[in-house]
Amino acid sequence: MEPFAIKDSTMAFIGLGLIGGSLARGIKRARPDIRIMAYMRTRAKLEQAQKDGIVDVILEGIGEELRECDLIFLCTPVEYNARYLSAIRPFLKPGALITDVGSTKTDIHEEIRRQGLEHCFVGGHPMTGSEKTGYENSTDHLLENAYYIVTPPEGQSGESAQYTENVRRILAVAQAVDAIPLVLDYREHDRVTAAVSHLPHLVASSLVNLVKDNDSAAGTMRRIAAGGFKDITRIASSSPEMWEQICMTNAAPIGDMLEQYIYSLQEILAQIRGHKGRDIYRLFDQSRSYRNSISDRAKGPIEPSYEFSVDVADEVGSISTIAVILAAKGISIKNIGINNNRERGEGALKIAFYNETSMKEAWERLEKYKFDLVRL
Ligand SMILES: NC(=O)c1ccc[n+]([C@@H]2O[C@H](COP(=O)([O-])OP(=O)(O)OC[C@H]3O[C@@H](n4cnc5c(N)ncnc54)[C@H](O)[C@@H]3O)[C@@H](O)[C@H]2O)c1
Ligand SMILES: O=C(O)C(=O)C[C@]1(C(=O)O)C=C[C@@H](O)C=C1
After folding, report:
1. What's the pTM?
2. Domain ACT, which positions (predicted)?
3. pLDDT of 27-67, one tens digit each?
4. Is 3.40.50.720 the CATH number for 10-184?
5. Rounded to an integer, what distance in angstroms lies between the CA atom of residue 54 and that of residue 36?
6. Fold type of domain 189-292
C-alpha cells in the first residue's frame, strides 16, 4: 500500500483507555505537532495524560471545543461509541471525520446510516489489545505491526473523491502508528472477528467458570492449573462491560459460530465416549497443522521474532549461566525472562534474539550444554 501522510492537525479522543490511550500515544510519538483533545470520565487519568504530554486539551464533555477538531476518535465500549454520534453531531465542523476503534462494526455503521453521516465516518478496529484496561496500561507501541482494519461506510461510491480521501485519512493514522492497514467490508469484519476474537472470549470465560464450578473447596484445580489452562484463558480476565457490549452488537455472527462450535463439541463428546481414538487423533492432527500455520508473533507479520524457550529448574542461576554461555560466543540477547506458565519458580526461560543467525547459534550452543529447548 502506498504511504499516506496525516494532514489532520487537531484530533479528539472520546474515551482514552487502553486502545484510545495507545493510539493517542502512537500518534504523538509519530507527530508531536498534532494537537490532541480528550474526554473520559475519570478526570485524574486525563490530567495524567496531559502531564505525559499526550493530551493537550482536556475536554469536560462533548461541546463547542469539538468544532476545532479534524478527526474524532470514539474509543469507549462499542454501544457507547454509537450513542456518542448524536451528541457529537451538532459540533462537527465541515470536513471533520469521525472514526472509532470498536471491536464490532455493523452496529455503528447502521447508526451512521440512520443518522445520514456516511460522508463523515470511516470505521476502524486495531486487531491488538490485552485483557487489561485503562489509560494506565496504554503504550505508544501497542498498535505496531498489528492489523488495523478500516471499514468504509456503505452507500458511498468507491470512486468518489471524498470517500477515497476519508479512507486515506484513517489509513494515514494506521500507518503513522506503524500498524498494517487492511480495508474490509464491515459485515465481513463482524463475521471474521466472531470466529477469531469473540467466540474465543466466550470459550475462555465459560471454561474458567466450568473449572470454578467443579473445583473442590480446597481449590486444587485452581492451584495446579498450569500452562495449558493459562494459555487458553488469559482473555477471561478481560472487561465484562466491554465484552457484554461486543456480544450484544454482534449476536447473529457469534450465534452462528457458537452453534457450529457446540456441534463440534458434541461430536467430540461422542468420539470420547465411543473411544474413537482415530477421530480424536485426527482432531489434534488437523488443529496442529492449521495452528502451526498461524504466526505466534504477538505484533503481527512485519517484524519476525527470533525466540525460543529453555526448560530450567532454577531460573535465577539459569539466567546468568545461559547469559554467560551465549556471551562467550558473542551472541547478543535481546530479551530474557521467565515464561509465566509454571508455578513455584520452576519453569521455562524465554530468550529473544535480534536475528535468525544469533537464534540458531544460541540454539546449537545451548543444545551442546544439554539444555531442554522448545521452539515458540
Ligand atoms: N481491549 C482490547 O483488546 C481492544 C482491542 C481493539 C479494540 N477494542 C475496542 O476499543 C474500545 C475501547 O476499549 P479499551 O480496551 O480501550 O477499553 P478501556 O476500558 O481501557 O477504555 C475505555 C475508555 O472509555 C471510557 N469510557 C467508558 N465509558 C464511557 C462513557 N460512557 N463515556 C465516556 N467515556 C467512557 C473509559 O473511561 C476509558 O477511558 C472498545 O470499543 C473495544 O471494543 C478493544
Ligand atoms: O489480546 C487480547 O487480550 C485480546 O483479546 C485482543 C483482541 C482479540 O484478539 O480478541 C480483543 C478484542 C479486539 O477487538 C481485538 C483484539
Report:
1. 0.84
2. 307-376
3. 999 999 999 999 999 999 999 999 999 999 999 999 999 99
4. yes
5. 7
6. 6-phosphogluconate dehydrogenase C-terminal fold (1.10.3660)
